[in-house]
Design a protein that fits this description.
Layout lengths: L2 E5 L2 H4 L4 H15 L4 E7 L11 E5 L8 H9 L6 E4 L11 E6 L3 H4 L6 H8 L2 H7 L2 E4 L2 H11 L6 E3 L13 H11 L6 E4 L8 H14 L6 E5 L5 H10 L6 E5 L6 H7 L2 E4 L8 H8 L3 E5 L4 H5 L4 E3 L4 H13 L1 H15 L4 H15 L1
Helix pairs in contact: 2-16, 8-11, 9-14, 12-15
Length: about 375
């Protein structure tokens, strides 16, 4: 029986994003594959169990350590793996006969100024070695595949795209459930929404400027809710809000519980994600699944996620972002049509499909 290893250590250190990808891919593979033998590797510090059926092993080597490549290679040697899947971009020097990596985006090459020095060291200094060493690469979007080909000279046939899925909890919820969460999160009757980490790459500065323009055009526009976690340079964002005198119109909702996120999307009039770059972008997909209109950047993977639903804007054009918010607030008939279109599109994104493609890559290598 073929031995496949799955490096899920990052789930101990981070929530959302890549960690969500890891958790859902593992669960979907457990349903799909009864032929191969899997070992899911977690941090020795983790208390969470990631699997229902697969074997789980704990490793000492921490994520992103400067000696990770060597230490992880040593730890994995005893498992005799035929394939090691590294979903956090960077594989060890030698962990198996074949290596599969997932490259979620190349944001760190496009916008190194938006990363911490530690992140630049880890990703920028190793990505060329990683894509060269990998026997095959999974990418979250066609945009990321194009970046791999154009920026790192990866042969196109070495990259397979598998769009990600949306969790089943993101759906239209009944009115009584929504009212309970409105009270719990202390939300107004109407609001615009941003969901994500508060960091420069998300273009919160541009969103705030656009919102200020919106208020000049529509003084009674609803508040803007910023929901997520504090990221790099958060204090600068807070100072910008103070300087722009938007403190009374911006509502912070930090660390919203995962179980409350579907209601948050349901309650919003629109989701605005004007990021400079996204490897995939869960928030607009989750918003569509909840019947909420997305306004997103016209860059990277976001057009692949939303398709013809909602509005796409130039993230550098604050007037365009403001105009998009104005339309979603004032054109009720159009918004209703887009809400239905979003539900239909979101239904096509499933983790089963994501896992089917990953499994086909494993089997081809085996």
């Amino acid at each position: 029986m073929n031995q496949i290893g799955f490096d899920a250590r990052l789930t101990y250190y981070r929530k959302g994003g890549i960690s969500t990808y890891m958790r859902r891919l593992i669960l979907a593979l457990e349903q799909l594959d009864t032929e191969n033998h899997y070992t899911v590797f977690n941090s020795r510090k983790a208390s969470e169990t990631l699997t229902r059926r697969f074997r789980e092993a704990r490793l000492w080597t921490p994520c992103h350590h400067r000696l990770e490549n060597i230490a992880l290679s040593v730890e994995l040697a005893r498992f005799g793996l035929d394939i090691l899947h590294s979903p956090d971009f960077i594989p060890p020097l030698r962990g198996a006969r074949h290596h599969v990596i997932t490259v979620h985006d190349l944001n760190f090459l496009y916008y190194p100024q938006y990363l911490t020095a530690e992140s630049r060291r880890y990703y920028n200094n190793q990505i060329e070695r990683a894509v060269l060493q990998a026997d095959h690469i999974l990418a979250d979007s066609t945009a990321t595949k194009h970046d791999l080909v154009n920026m790192l000279a990866v042969p196109a046939e070495k990259v397979t795209v598998h769009l990600l899925g949306v969790d089943e909890s993101f759906e239209c919820l009944p009115a009584e459930t929504l009212e309970a969460y409105r009270q719990q999160l202390d939300l107004p009757d109407t609001f615009l929404l941003f969901v994500g980490t508060f960091e420069p790459r998300k273009n919160i500065a541009g969103l705030l400027k656009a919102y200020q323009l919106l208020l000049e055009q529509l003084p009674d526009a609803p508040p803007l809710v910023l929901a997520g976690q504090r990221g790099w340079l958060f204090d600068e964002t807070m100072q910008q809000i103070e300087d722009m005198q938007l403190k009374d119109r911006i509502l912070w909702r930090e660390n919203v519980p995962q179980q409350a996120l579907p209601a948050l999307y349901n309650l919003a009039t629109a989701l605005i994600l004007p990021s400079f770059y996204e490897g995939f972008g869960f928030p607009p997909l989750e918003a569509m699944a909840c019947g909420t209109v997305p306004i997103v950047s016209d860059r990277a993977s976001l057009p692949e996620v939303v398709g013809d639903v909602g509005l796409m804007v130039d993230p550098d054009d604050t007037a365009a972002i403001a105009a998009a918010m104005s339309r979603v607030l004032t054109d009720t008939a159009w918004r209703t049509n887009q809400e239905e279109a979003g539900l239909q599109r979101a239904a096509t994104f499933t983790w089963d499909s994501t896992a089917q493609i990953a499994l086909s890559v494993y089997n081809t290598l085996l």
